[in-house]
Fold each of these.
Amino acid sequence: DAGVTQSPTHLIKTRGQHVTLRCSPISGHKSVSWYQQVLGQGPQFIFQYYEKEERGRGNFPDRFSARQFPNYSSELNVNALLLGDSALYLCASSSLLAGANYEQYFGPGTRLTVT
Amino acid sequence: EDQVTQSPEALRLQEGESSSLNCSYTVSGLRGLFWYRQDPGKGPEFLFTLYSAGEEKEKERLKATLTKKESFLHITAPKPEDSATYLCAVLGTDSWGKLQFGAGTQVVVTP
């Protein structure tokens, strides 16, 4: 079974630019969550989407936005990049069906470097 | 606000030397506590979910336990391939998808 996939694997951008990161969840999963992980820290929650609607938002500026498509894949967009946005961006999928567990399964991540 | 604190920050073990990692948490209501393993530059790999105090889960050399305020990950007779960062996260009852992570414990097992 295919796990969570993310693209691209690595990305180098310049300050002020815009970036789009992509995620495909595990087949049958309808919820996607995005996390930012800075070196040496645990992942920080950015967004959760379920059935194409935003269901949760973390403490991130409005430069961060996301959406979920009818096939449940998702995009994370970051505008006006800052050096501090350099991090590993993780996507996680979960089922959230009634009676299901709340386990989230992570993709390999996208390493974003802002110069 | 949910909080998770993991200790120690780093742990160096000899192969076969058992030890325990601690995860202390505060949450208004607990949906679940999760343990993940993360290798450098990779995404976290799911290990266990614990839902209520007293629950225990095992997988190979790893055993996770849960009380009302903390969880332990016991590593029995570790091997070098158990070297990784172990992350603990909680999901509160006020959220369906926001995992609150600790900073992790970096474990190095030497032959």
Amino acid sequence: AQSVTQLDSHVSVSEGTPVLLRCNYSSSYSPSLFWYVQHPNKGLQLLLKYTSAATLVKGINGFEAEFKKSETSFHLTKPSAHMSDAAEYFCVVSASGGYQKVTFGTGTKLQVIP
Amino acid sequence: GAGVSQSPSNKVTEKGKDVELRCDPISGHTALYWYRQRLGQGLEFLIYFQGNSAPDKSGLPSDRFSAERTGESVSTLTIQRTQQEDSAVYLCASSLMVAGADTQYFGPGTRLTVL
């Protein structure tokens, strides 16, 4: 069994300030973890993924996430928010110990204030 | 190359009618997923195909929902006797193979409105 919890449904930051979107997971197997972004009226796009290599993963648009097994977390961060970062972000878990379908979190809407 | 495409982009139908949604995955991708996204909510897994294996239908919400896929190509999601609660965006994704690390590539979705 696996699950993913996105702790905040909405996050609001000022332009130029750091972004933190929180994600906790549970999985019976060593998981693969993903962050996807969905801009308004656009499709889902992969930001980054963790696949049991380096625990600090860098993605597109300056985002990165750190896999912390002890905390079962995979929080998404960015040092400085841009207006174009306003979107909905989904944390996704997929077990790698055998086939398991992916499980999406409920999403976090990021608002960037000018 | 081309990404995942879905058609129609929008569909408005009357309650009780059947609808068929189409997904064209990326060529060579063996895995194909269907999801539903209700307004303001996350993605809800519906069904998954992998090559010629039996599909994982564990996410289908009722027997009104069915899906088919011919080999590793086009898939159709059919909703019979539509209900208003079926209104949502239906997303299709494909990936190269079934494994935990595979990236899913999403189509733009079909927005279904049931009146």
Amino acid sequence: DARVTQTPRHKVTEMGQEVTMRCQPILGHNTVFWYRQTMMQGLELLAYFRNRAPLDDSGMPKDRFSAEMPDATLATLKIQPSEPRDSAVYFCASGFGTSDTGELFFGEGSRLTVL
Amino acid sequence: AQSVAQPEDQVNVAEGNPLTVKCTYSVSGNPYLFWYVQYPNRGLQFLLKYITGDNLVKGSYGFEAEFNKSQTSFHLKKPSALVSDSALYFCAVSRRTGFQKLVFGTGTRLLVSP
């Protein structure tokens, strides 16, 4: 079964520490999205890539967040330094198509707790 | 910018009864519309989508949704609810032109009682 794989599934860290979340999109998919889910804000789009190129990261706090795709099999989301308000579940999703009319496939999420 | 409104935080329905989860959207031009479902501690799963054509879209697990352009709505429906349908449901929209990004609503929790 093809699936989006995210690591770590759970992360507890202290304020100020660097956090890196990784995502392996489904092989062959050319779009990758990072979403953040909280009770207060719901699902927020942080960044998305097409063919490894970042197309929109306007939803991401630029001072501490960064997203990259070093190759087609890996997407990373980094927070440095982390703050308690970053506590959330971070989802990666991948899809395929030139017009994004297809469905997105979501990973299981990385639950981040910043103390 | 596109947006989605899901006016109900929670919908309660008895098993065997029909269910409706409401969604309205705002987007410039014609939309692509989607419904996703999220079970506890899981990622979102695709249910169905409207791209073009027939306004009634059928999807997974017996769900369907009706696109209504004049009311800018895309309500999710099922003729007979199951307890296992209890989950969090998200409506999403993207634009047709340019590079689309999927914007989600706040979600509606569906509780189906036995």
Amino acid sequence: AQSVTQPDIHITVSEGASLELRCNYSYGATPYLFWYVQSPGQGLQLLLKYFSGDTLVQGIKGFEAEFKRSQSSFNLRKPSVHWSDAAEYFCAVAKTGANNLFFGTGTRLTVIP
Amino acid sequence: EPEVTQTPSHQVTQMGQEVILRCVPISNHLYFYWYRQILGQKVEFLVSFYNNEISEKSEIFDDQFSVERPDGSNFTLKIRSTKLEDSAMYFCAGSGQGAAGEKLFFGSGTQLSVL
């Protein structure tokens, strides 16, 4: 069965600093991988997704993620964090062709001035 | 960007009562989903719905749960007899084509509190 692990429950970074949020997945084949963001009082918004091809994917709001099969990881990165990036970030995996997503427990990002 | 609307934003109910959580998906979407998130835990898949029937459901979605799209616009989740452990944030989502490759649009959620 597929699963997702986000080892960091809470991360605090300074505005302008770089960011990396970790995500590890467990799945027998090549999964579909996603990063979602949830701002307070908002729904989940898709940041980016990976299905195949280039292992470095670009998303919205300046985020990118890199799929590393050897490490079963799909870490999210941003070179310079803005205060508006403070939110909860969720990594998710789906079986190839499936309709439902399996989410990690999320990482809460706090941005300090 | 079009939005998925969920009402109410917060619902409080007594244990054993029935609740109906409502969602208005984006009008041209065909696939609909319910997810839930118990405080401090993962967002969990409950059920997917297509062509007026359930296409997939998780083990969480037992006989106490049901979904329907009664009028072609609203998409509802009913819990017949709520339990304390049903307290969670419930998210509705929709997509145009349903495959995992399609972008899911999520609502902002309904916080259900069972007392």
